[in-house]
Specification:
With 429 residues, this protein is of the alpha+beta class. Helix content is 59%, strand content 11%.
């Protein structure tokens, strides 16, 4: 663990100002209600004016936070300042009202919990340590619990120590949960953003291709007109050498422009196959060919006879999804990748097998989650096992695919099975 990174106030770690303001208003109103109930309704005495004073300071700080700070998101440093003050405020109130024996002492863990969800790990650890110090102080030094003398009752030492330990356990557990939850949420959000970015770029390329085709079509008529006029001029000029060479150049360049525009239009037609139907076997062949050009590994495709009937509409999701898993197989295989296409009246199935190390046992249950890492020494790099698998799975599931991961008995490596119900293939029709 890199402790310099851990305790560095993390960039892009922030807490929504309105959220913190709302939480602090709830705390302030709750504190006011509690002390007034105890003092006036239950008629139990404690230093209420001191309690009013510390709550008033908290109220002023929250008004400043709400109206004096204009930023929507509070940086780690600013948020931790207000949370630390809230911790100090609650500690003083508890000191005045029985210390750790006060049932509201459990609320001391709230600032650390909020920090674990929204702020850096370093900030959470610091707030946790401050909380532990305050808990120890409140266990040892505090005013008596209001009304305790009237009833001639005192808490046993073991009760206070046990309550102290219980709060510490709750603090550690909930803080750890908050840190893990916030971390996983952030990772998933980043992965989904990358996924969206990938699809957006593909659609942008398609849009640019359509614009190019439209431009080619629009320029075709003016170029044809120029060519006709130039040809007529050549006839009129005859053998005049002063101008004939220039006109010949004009005609040749016009033809060249027409050929370029024709290629653009033809290319766009090919690219528009994203919106046309293609045999699934042909699509797999295209993807495999692109990897054969950059890899020396043996990549084979086998298919049953019925596959010539499987026609789907091209989509970026299916293409990128299949490319991700085939690319992972090529990357992690030692020398061989085998892709099998099967279909019947009910199911269409693509099986991608390789002779690599296979899926490590410690990540099998979490395959498909972003940013996973394996401790296995057989896998030199985990890139693709986490984010790549997550993206590929998400893209294919968007198109109604089911995925399973296992070990291939024949090649000994990883096996990925992608299948569709034959009826769901009609979504592409």
């Amino acid at each position: 663990m890199n402790f310099s990174t851990l305790f560095r106030l993390g960039e892009n770690l922030n807490l929504d100002r309105k959220t913190l303001v709302f939480l602090r208003w709830i705390a302030i109103l709750g504190q006011l209600f509690a002390i007034n109930l105890v003092f006036f309704a239950l008629e139990l005495e404690f230093p209420i004016f001191s309690a009013y004073l510390i709550i008033s300071i908290g109220l002023i700080t929250n008004l400043f936070l709400q109206f004096g700070i204009k930023t929507i998101q509070l940086k780690d440093l600013y948020a931790s300042f207000f949370l630390t003050y809230d911790l100090i405020q609650l500690t003083i109130l508890l000191y005045l009202t029985g210390g750790i024996s006060n049932p509201f002492s459990i609320l001391l863990i709230v600032p650390a919990i909020v920090s674990s969800t929204f702020l850096s790990v370093g900030t959470t650890i610091i707030l946790g340590l401050i909380t532990l110090i305050f808990l120890f102080i409140l266990t040892t030094f505090h005013y008596p619990l209001p009304g305790i003398h009237e009833n001639s009752f005192t808490f046993p030492t073991y009760y206070l120590v046990g309550f102290f330990i219980a709060i510490i356990i709750g603090l550690v557990f909930l803080s750890y949960f908050g840190i893990r939850f916030a971390g996983e949420t952030k990772k998933r959000s980043e992965a989904l953003n990358k996924l969206q970015e990938m699809i957006s770029k593909e659609y942008e390329l398609e849009s640019l291709g359509g614009q190019a085709a439209a431009a080619a079509h629009s320029l075709g008529t003016p170029l044809a007109t120029i060519s006709v006029v130039a040809t007529e001029l050549k006839k009129e000029i005859g053998n005049n050498q002063n101008y004939s060479k220039d006109i010949d150049l004009l005609i040749s360049q016009t033809k060249r422009c027409s050929e370029i525009l024709k290629k653009i239009s033809t290319k766009q037609i090919k690219e528009d196959e994203f919106f046309s139907f293609v045999y699934l076997e042909d699509l797999l062949e295209e993807i495999i060919t692109s990897f054969k050009e950059t890899s020396s590994k043996k990549i084979t495709l086998s298919a049953n006879e019925d596959n010539n009937k499987i026609s789907i509409k091209r989509s970026p999701e299916i293409i990128y999804g299949l490319r991700n898993f085939i690319g992972n197989a090529v990357k992690f295989s030692k020398s061989e990748v085998n892709i099998i296409l099967k279909s019947n009246k009910e199911v269409v199935e693509i099986k991608i097998n390789d002779n690599g190390p296979g899926f490590p046992e410690d990540i099998k249950k979490v395959l498909g989650e972003p940013y996973i890492k394996s401790k296995s020494k057989d896998v030199s790099s985990n890139a693709g096992l986490g984010l790549g698998t997550f993206l590929g799975q998400t893209l294919l599931k968007k198109k109604f695919a089911s995925l399973s991961f296992s070990k291939d008995k024949k090649l000994g490596g990883a096996s990925v099975i992608i299948s569709w119900n034959i009826n769901n293939f009609k979504f592409n029709a």
